[in-house]
Amino acid sequence: MDTKLDAWEILHAEVQLGGFAPAAEKLNRSQSTISYAAGRLQEQLGVRLFEIRGRKAHLTAARTALPMLFFTALLPAAETAHLSIDASKAGAKIDRNLFGQFAENLGHGLYEGIWVGPDSPISNTRGIRNDVVTALRALKVPNVRWPGGCFADEYHWRKGIGASAQRPATLNAAWGDVVDPNSFGTHEFMDFMQQIGSEPYVSINVASGSPQEAAEWLEYMTAAKPTALAKERAANGHPDPYPVGFLGIGNESWGCGGSMTADGYLSQLKIYSHFVRNDNPAQQGKNGMLRIAVGPGFPETEWTETVMKGWQHHDWTWNIDGLSLHWYTVANGWTPSTPSTAFGVAEYAKTLKSTLFMEEFLRKQEAVMDKYDPEKKVALAVDEWGAWHAALPGTNPSFLVQQNSIRDAILASLNLNIFARHASRVRMSNIAQMINVLQAMILTDQEKMVVTPTYYVYKMYVPFQDGTFVPITFDAGTYTQDSVSLPRVDALAARDASGKLWVEITNLDPEKPVDLDAEIAGMTFHSANGETLTAPAADSVNTVAAPNMVVPKQLTASVKGGKLALTVPPKSVTVLSLEP
Ligand code: AHR
After folding, report:
1. Are 140 and 197 in contact (CB under 8 A)?
2. Cβ(495)–Cβ(463) under 8 Å?
3. Cβ atoms within 10 A of the Cβ of 19, count?
4. H and E: helices and strands count for the chain
């Protein structure tokens, strides 16, 4: 455990506020945690820091004078880094769809995580949890992929429409053979999208469905004309057509989605992409639905080669707008075995090293795409990615339940930065998965919920949605843990529509702060404020009992003569806005 910074923060608060109780309140920690930390510090420093008078602890004079001494004695010296940004230069647009989510019918992702049913004692709107909706609205989630994943190729949409009591219960064979009441179907998903203000990304069943089933689902969702399917939708409560912004044609068709060869999939793709029509009048022409083909989930490029070569010769009968790509961070290789709690800096470093492979993965696939599509008409949609750790002990292994630490938050920022750097081709991504599954935004426990460190990264990155990439150069430095070497720092810059410059800095080093100075050309600015997300230890997590272990804190940088100076804490994600 990295306790030094935490102890310093506690000490600082105690001295500033004059005691354990106000420090506990300010830091959102229990008084016992605060007094325990104080006791340990006393031991470590060999200085009497507090004395008990009556039933109260009082700070000693030595304690009041301590912060600087303690800071310099115990905290590792800061590293330095220099950034340089030319705000007058513009790169690609960072598509807001890079910040998409994935909600599969898996474990407690939908049932319990989103859907509790209208009769639940948990506060809900038409069966959808209000607490979850409120939290997600703050993320401005651009799109949500549903119903799978592997589940998509098992899903038959007709079982999930109509009166809830009449819907057949089925087995979720993809994820643990649990009984699925089908209460969360098309209408509930669309309602959820409307409640959180997001756009549906529907994946259709290619492996165990048929082009007819898929075409009819599309007509059911999108037809405005009075067809029998549109009337059925109206009879089920929704006369207006639904918007379907994105359509995934299958999922992992080389694996759980049909074990197809690339050529076999290409034949299917030609048929499906022709027959899945979006009839919603509001989604024609440039607002048309984007069709996303299955891409690889492995570094080899043959699959991409086959699909893109086929696409190059496509005629009017079929087309695609995107190619999907799946890549998870599975640090110790398959089967996932990294713990999501109670790990040390060695595991921390190994996981971050592993996640950086995303860069090379994208580069390889993009090189193939560039060959067949130099104009970058076909987007890359990284529609499954994130940390895949071992299932939490005591949970159903098929439910993919894991905790989410500051390590996962840093992993998220590194990947989002990679996507942004590839924004001319990568125009969509969906972290796996939204709630209670894999690298989640939210964890629920009955009527309680907690937002994770990864949630805060997504919240801090909202200003980057649809921003314009601004080139940034920096010497990343190196952080080495055992035999693992990593860049110490990563960074991203973008301008938003109002002209504000946003800068993100990730400090990967779990021990050392980084003193940054940034030269910013092409813009005059007077202030720089923002937030930083860090934590006492590399494995710090939020739980329903202690929801504020990892929360962003305000940060102000100093601005002098066009230069920005700030210190970012160890293992942190910082986002600043620079006001012209
Ligand atoms: O996200 C969990 C699973 O991972 C998805 O269902 C599948 O597409 C992938 O293998």
Report:
1. yes
2. no
3. 17
4. 15, 29
Is residue 259 within 8 Å of residue 250, measured between CB atoms? no
Question: Which residues are the active-site residues?
Answer: 252, 384
Residue carrying the six token digits 């939490």: 392
d(CA 184, CA 186): 7
Residue 492 has pLDDT above 60, yes or no: yes
Residue 319 Cα to ligand 1 midpoint, Å, equals 25
Name the token pair of 31.
């008084």
115, 500 Cβ separation under 8 angstroms:
no
- Determine contact, residues 381/366, Cβ cutoff 8 Å: no
Give ∠ CA 257-259-261 in degrees, rounded to 5.
Answer: 115
CA-based nearest residue to 474, from 86, 84, 89? 84
The pLDDT score that the predictor gives to residue 1 is 35
Q: Does residue 49 surpass a pLDDT of 90?
A: no
Query: Which residues neighbour 334 within 8 Å (Cβ) at sequence distance 6 or greater?
Result: none
Per the listing, tokens 């202030």 go with 527
Candidates 346, 360, 221; CA nearest to 300 is 360
Ligand 1 atom nearest the C-alpha of 152 is: 6
pLDDT tens for residues 230-242? 999 999 999 999 9
Q: How far is the CA of 40 from the centre of ligand 1 (A)?
A: 44
Mean pLDDT (whole number) for 108-119: 98
Position 72 scores a pLDDT of 44
- In this structure, are residues 560 and 498 in contact, taking their beta carbons and an 8 Å threshold? no
Q: Are 10 and 27 in contact (CB under 8 A)?
A: yes
> What confidence tier does 562 reach under pLDDT thresholds 50, 70, 90?
confident
- Among 145, 256, 435, which is best to mutate for testing ligand 1, by the most ligand atoms less than 8 A from CB? 256
- Whole-number Å distance, alpha carbon 295 to ligand 1 midpoint, is 13
Instruction: Give the residue among 429, 453, 428 at the shortest CA–CA distance from 440.
Output: 453
Cβ contacts of 187 within 8 Å, gap of 6 or more: 161, 236, 237, 238
User: In 3D, which of 504, 492, 498 has the Cα closest to residue 528?
Assistant: 504
What does the DSSP assignment read for 415-472? HHHHHHHTTTTEEEEEEE-SBSSSS-SEEEETTEEEE-HHHHHHHHTGGGTTEEE--E
